Amino acid sequence: MPDATEALIVIDVQNDFCPGGALAVAGGDEIVAPINALMADYPLTVLTQDWHPAGHSSFATSHGGKAPFDVIDMPYGAQVLWPDHCVQNSPGAEFHTGLNTDAAKMIIRKGYRPEIDSYSAFFENDHTTPTGLEGYLRTLGVQRLTMVGLATDFCVAYSAIDGARLGFDVTVRQDLCRAIDLDGSLAAAQTDMAAAGVKLDG
Ligand code: VGL
Ligand code: ZN
């Protein structure tokens, strides 16, 4: 059983990433019940919530002539353009109704700065601007992280790699994640996670 040095990090289990949502991930809703069950084993659960202002720079609609899934250069590097999703206070930004949000002690919102995307629970996509999650976990003595949620190849992978680079012992439960899988992005994310020392489980 996990002890006080372990935390469960549940990434972006929100309506827009579930079937029927604006950026639906196939099978995204299948992981809700088993994630709830897993929360019961952990003394600490953290949720992340993708939380974009309308007109966010990661939306294709914010760039004339661009379509969803086009890639553009931003000052901080390459950026995939997405359909409008997880707009602050919209139904799509809400957690899946089946998710046990009561179990969470901390909810990290990310992607709220108009000019920069934020896949990772730890840093925005410039890899430098922190969300504060590292300090929260360290002050509580957490050393080991289990990550689950959506999407495996974007927000879960970025969070897991950053966590490992920060020195946390990170395991991704792939059976409790689902992927977007854009042009081989799932295989690339698995390679990158393994190279960063992330344990891939499930
Ligand atoms: C995500 C694309 C855009 C994710 C968030 O949660 O993986 N992907 N915003
Ligand atoms: Zn997003």
Features:
alpha/beta; binds zinc ion; 8 strands; 20% helix; 202 residues; binds pyrazine-2-carboxylic acid
Explain this structure.
This protein is of the alpha/beta class and 202 residues long. Helices cover 20% and strands 22% of the residues. It is built from 4 helices and 8 strands, in the order βαββββαβαβαβ. It has helices spanning 32-39, 133-139, 152-165, 185-195, and strands at 6-11, 45-50, 71-74, 77-80, 106-110, 144-150, 169-178, 199-201. The strands form 2 sheets. It has a 6-stranded parallel β-sheet, with helices on both faces. Strands 3-4 form a two-stranded antiparallel sheet. The structure holds pyrazine-2-carboxylic acid and zinc ion. Residues 12, 17, 50, 82, 119, 150-151, 154-155 line the site of pyrazine-2-carboxylic acid.
TL;DR?
The chain has helices at 32-39, 133-139, 152-165, 185-195, and strands at residues 6-11, 45-50, 71-74, 77-80, 106-110, 144-150, 169-178, 199-201. The protein is α/β, with parallel strands linked by helices and 202 residues long.
The radius of gyration is: 16 Å
* CA distance, first residue to last residue: 17 Å
Counted by DSSP, the helix tally is 4
Largest sheet, if any? Answer: 6 strands, parallel
Spatially, the strands of the biggest sheet line up as 5-2-1-6-7-8
The global form is globular
Which ions, cofactors or small ligands are bound in this entry? pyrazine-2-carboxylic acid, zinc ion
Structural class of the helices, strands and pairings?
Answer: alpha/beta
Q: What is the residue-averaged pLDDT?
A: 97
Order of helices and strands: EHEEEEHEHEHE
User: How many strands appear in the DSSP assignment?
Assistant: 8
Low-confidence stretches: none
Percent of sequence in beta strands = 15-25%
